[in-house]
Amino acid sequence: MAEIGVGVIGFGLATKVFHAPFVSAVPGLKLKAIVQRSGDEAAQAYPEVKIVRSVEELLADPAIALVVVATPNETHFPLAKQALEAGKHVVIDKPFAATSEQARELIELAQEMGLVLAPFHNRRWDADFLTVKKVMADGSLGRLVTFESHYDRYRPTLRENTWKEAANPANGLLMDLGPHLVDQVLSVFGQPETITASVRTDRDAKGIEDAFDIALGYKGLIAWCRSSMLACDASPRFLLHGTAGSFKKYGLDPQEPALLKGAKVPRMGSDEVWLQEDASAWGTLTVAPDLNKPAELVKTTVKSEIGDYRNFYASVRDAISGAGELEVPAEAGYDCVRVLELARVSSQEGRSVRLSE
């Protein structure tokens, strides 16, 4: 297989932790260039990779077939559009776009150009989410009635000099962590019938959304997506209740923390395992073997599945080369942004909304 040249725009946290390490670990992809407008961090981290100072220089390079947009949220749409118009396949870090209108325009442009366009919804390959899917699939919970997903932080004051907390509709917690939670739900349950949400500012500092509760309504099921910047004591990452039992899981997927501590992602296909979660963080399944004796419960620790963000980029590689389907299609990016938009409408108007609105 001929290697697919990859260029990444930006060298912030997203590139350092999520894109460059996993692109570099997938056979068939070759990290060839990084856009860093100033500084030498990228050159020090990846001395074998060409460092360019402008998007135009990157897009003019015929060796680059795939462009990763890993820049501030409000720039995702114009940079992705520019890359598509230059004939490059594109991966866009979350959020896929600031609005569903922008998302639709990018999808239509990619289709017109015959190019692969993928939202970076890597959290489909989180260890905890894969474990939740396995528990749901094996029938242990009976008929699922509530699915609750939290992604919380404790940051009681605004951080200075970061675009993530600048007043802009493309920023804030809803557009930062909301795509992770909402996409996971949509990938399992599909489009909801209703969206009921509270999107708000809980901290004393005003001007930026820092908390949300989104209820996605399905027939016989409510799926909650919740996040707060004032979670000093952690809620369960996942809490599921069904007619036969419950599953509870604390803690986030270990891949990001490991990389922040300097871990190296092994080459895909090697014998080295990436990355087994510590047993202390495994979830608990509680069931009633006899539904007529609800007080007689059995608790079991459930070993976490192995999460692996390399699978996202392997899917992109296969889609570009024609060897497989894209596991996170562009339409998934549109669907997620549309739900987040309607969550704001629901919150502002104090009512449940439908996707058709």
Count the beta strands: 14
State the helix count.
Answer: 11
Largest sheet: 8 strands, mixed
Give the class-level CATH name of the largest domain: Alpha Beta
Order of neighbouring strands in the sheet with most strands:
8-9-10-7-11-12-13-14
The CATH topology annotation of the largest domain reads as: Dihydrodipicolinate Reductase, domain 2
Structural class: alpha/beta
Helix content: 25-40%
**CATH superfamily of the largest domain, please?**
Dihydrodipicolinate Reductase, domain 2
Q: Tell me the count of domains.
A: 2
N-to-C terminal Cα separation, in Å?
Answer: 45 Å
Succession of helices and strands: EHEHEHEHEHEHEHHEEEEEHEEHH
Mean residue pLDDT:
96
Low-confidence stretches: none
Shape-level CATH architecture of the largest domain:
2-Layer Sandwich
Integer-rounded radius of gyration:
21 Å
What fraction of residues sit in β-strands? Answer: 15-25%
Shape by Cα distribution: globular
In short:
The protein has 357 residues and is α/β, with parallel strands linked by helices. The chain contains eleven helices and 14 strands. It has two domains: 4-122 and 311-326, NAD(P)-binding Rossmann-like Domain (Rossmann fold), CATH 3.40.50.720; 124-307 and 339-349, Dihydrodipicolinate Reductase, domain 2.
What does the model show?
By secondary structure, the chain is α/β, with parallel strands linked by helices. The protein folds into two domains: 135 residues, NAD(P)-binding Rossmann-like Domain (Rossmann fold, 3-Layer(aba) Sandwich); 195 residues, Dihydrodipicolinate Reductase, domain 2, CATH 3.30.360. The chain is built from eleven helices and 14 strands. The strands form two sheets. It has an eight-stranded mixed beta sheet with strand order 8-9-10-7-11-12-13-14. Strands 3-2-1-4-5-6 form a six-stranded parallel beta sheet, sandwiched between helices. Helix 4 runs parallel beside helix 5. The model has no long low-confidence stretch (mean pLDDT 96).
